[in-house]
Amino acid sequence: MRFDDSLKTVLSADMATGFGAQSAWRQLVDLMGRGRAVADESAIERLRVLREAVPASVRAASARALAFASPGAALVGFFAEDELAIAAPVLRMVTLPAADWLGLLPRLSPTGRSVLRHRRDLPAEVARGLQSFGAVDFVLPQPELVAETFVEPVVETVVESAPAVEPVPAPVATPGVVAAPLSETPFMALGDIARGLPVVAQAFRHIAAERSSDPARFEISDLVARIDAFNRDRVIPPAPPVAPRVEAESFRFETDASGVIRWIEGVTRSPLVGVSLAHATRQGDAQVDGVVAGAFRRRSRFGDARLQVGGQSDAAGAWRMSGIPAFDHDSGRFTGMRGTARRPRADEVAERMAATSPVSDSLRQLVHELRTPTNAIAGFAELIETELLGPVSPTYRERATAIRTQAGDLLAAIDDLDTAARIEGHALDLRPTIVPVVPLLERVVRDLAPLASLRGATLLVDPGSSDCAIAGDDRVVERLVGRLLAALVSACGQGERIGIATGTAAGEVSLAFDRPRALPAHAGDTLLSIDAEDEIEGAPLLGTGFTLRLVQNLAGELGGGLTIDVNRLTLRLPSARDRGLGQASDTVR
User: Fold this and answer.
1) Distance between CA atoms of residues 44 and 82, nearest Å
2) Would the N or C end of the chain have less CB density within 10 A of its end CB?
3) Do residues 260 and 274 make contact, with C-beta atoms less than 8 angstroms apart?
4) What is the average pLDDT across 211-234?
């Protein structure tokens, strides 16, 4: 079938009904979009007639289908005349020669040209053509027409020795038309647009009425006085009293066979329903004690177990739970746990509360912020030092080694600050272990051998009783012994010796360290407060005084202490002799 025959067939279709109009629209757009019919003026005119009877949803579907075809400039221009939702798919997707685009640009609306401005596949001459419409497309729209407009009168000012100027007549206020000054550009001043708004016009009318009744000029001070009078005479109703939150004292609960709480009576249900008694981990805002989880696994009763609930409901806070297992009377099958919970008495503590302080929390946050970049610096320095990223000159390798060493010292200082903050906030986590003394001293002396060689000092260990052991956290014990001995070695002079003697007495292990000659200048507790200007060269990064205070506090956390004498420093820690691991845990907090 020829193009003309196809077009005549569509044009002669029955369009007496809405369905016929929609069918004719779809066929005609499809034929012209695929080049099977000529998109001449008569065909476009017929589409304009059909558009009145075709819904917007059908026209939008045709536009989306046409975006993937190859329509001509006449059909693209026709769809660009429609609503933006219908014109946008065609303008965003179709491809036309540059000459056709330039011919269409003047016919497009500003919104249609804005769609083309977002395309990046248009020819350069089309982009320049769009730029030429900038002043027209971006002009502020005209304000809505108002029935009555306030026109500010023209004030004629005469300036001496100035040439005579013809006065500019005021614009004529026509009802329903906004009076605006003539301009050589299509832009309008914001003040002119604002004066055309109904609210602003009404304000000007009030001012004019006040001027006519009072010949005195309207002053800003009058407005300020009115505002003050309004604030002075205004009566603010009192806020309704807020009822204090009533804290529940007890509640009852029941679980299913899997240990999940299904029923609550006495407090808000949401924080507790769904919590499993079979797990001692934190579940949402609630956490049960390990005693509860153990009793559930054994299907046995439990009493005064700990429960902590977060949030702001009446169930928030600490509880003591008691429960018994429930069984089916006929089958003997376990059906769950039933019990009650109460608030702890004054002499009970539902959980170990850490009495943190804002200072310790801020210090721990700072330590966290410092540790991350320091670890990164040390890691990159090690990559350069080991040439994992490629060959490096010896000079840069030496610098990388120095950076890695200094970053390691900084990390050690950061760890000391973190430990001090945890002690201050009562958040130091200690685990009960048994630490043999002699292997501990051998490890510490071996680690400090480079520092002792640098200072020209010698470390001598007198094992004494070789089977003595310390009851305490092995990590904390090794840290405090290492930090104390490092501070002493850094204060040694050339050829100086530090003796380390061990012993046990009265359930304690004592480690006596000889005091270097540089330290006796500071007697007693004065050594704990050495200022920066008094520091000895080679002392710890945070200072000898800080290190000794840290050692003293760590020893106190373990149940021991640090004694500073004229000739030696004695570290006393709990002994593990004749103690089991469980007895040692009573000493460690």
Assistant:
1) 13
2) N
3) yes
4) 62
Contact 306, 313 (CB under 8 A): no
Residues in the chain: 589
Contact 118, 91 (CB under 8 A): no
Judged by phi (left if over 0) then psi (alpha if -120 to 50, else beta), residue 152 lies in beta
293-298 long-range contacts, CB within 8 A, separation 24+: 295/323, 296/259, 296/337
- 56-66 helix and 18-33 helix, angle to the nearest 10 degrees: 20
pLDDT in tens, 537-578: 456 677 777 788 888 888 888 888 888 877 888 888 888 765
Distance from C-alpha of 149 to C-alpha of 23, rounded to nearest angstrom = 51
Contact 367, 418 (CB under 8 A): yes
Helix (H) or strand (E) holding 331: none
Q: Which of 370, 406, 369, 371 is CA-nearest to residue 385? A: 406
Parallel, antiparallel, or unpaired: how do β-strands 334-342 and 317-327 relate? antiparallel
Please say whether the dihedral angle defined by the alpha carbons of residues 392, 396, 402 and 407, taken in this order, is positive or negative.
Answer: negative
Exposure b/e, 134-167, CB count within 10 A at least 16 = b: eeebeeeeebeebeebbeeeeeeeeeeeeeeeee
φ, ψ dihedrals at 106, nearest 5°: -65, -25
CA distances from 351 to 233, 271, 297, 304, 355 (A): 55, 18, 22, 12, 12
Contact 573, 477 (CB under 8 A): yes
Show Cβ contacts of residue 100 under 8 Å, excluding neighbours closer than 6 positions: 72, 73, 76
- Three-class SS state of 443: helix
Taking the CB of residue 373, how many other CB atoms lie within 10 A of it? 10
The pair phi, psi for residue 129, each rounded to 5°, is -65, -40
Determine the Cα–Cα distance for residues 423 and 413; give it in Å rounded to an integer.
Answer: 15
Q: What is the pTM of this model?
A: 0.39
The mean pLDDT value for 59-65 works out to: 85
- What's the CA gap between 81 and 22, in Å, rounded? 19
The span from the CA of 366 to the CA of 311, in Å, is 27
Helix, strand, or coil (residue 491): coil
CA 495-500-505 angle, to 5 degrees, is 160
User: Is 451 in contact with 486 (CB distance < 8 Å)?
Assistant: yes
Pairing of strands 561-564, 497-505: unpaired
Three-state DSSP at 327 gives strand
Q: Using the CB atoms, write b or e for 264-280: b if 16+ within 10 Å.
A: beebbbebbeebbbebb
Is residue 567 a contact partner of residue 515, using CB atoms and an 8 Å limit? Answer: yes
Closest to 488 measured CA to CA, from 470, 505, 511: 511
Q: Which residues pair with 265 in a beta bridge?
A: 252
The residues that bridge with 251 in the sheet, in sequence order, are 341
Supply the Cα-derived Rg of the chain in whole angstroms. Answer: 44
Q: Hey, how many other C-beta atoms are within 10 angstroms of the C-beta on 415?
A: 14
Note the pLDDT tens digit of each residue in 505-535: 878 888 888 888 777 555 555 566 555 444 4
Q: How far is CA 576 from CA 435, 467, 584, in A?
A: 8, 10, 7
What mean pLDDT is reported for the chain?
75
Residue pair 573/508 in contact (Cβ under 8 Å)? The answer is yes
Rounded-to-10 torsion of CA 526, 531, 537, 540: 90
Q: Which residue has the tokens 């329509």?
A: 71
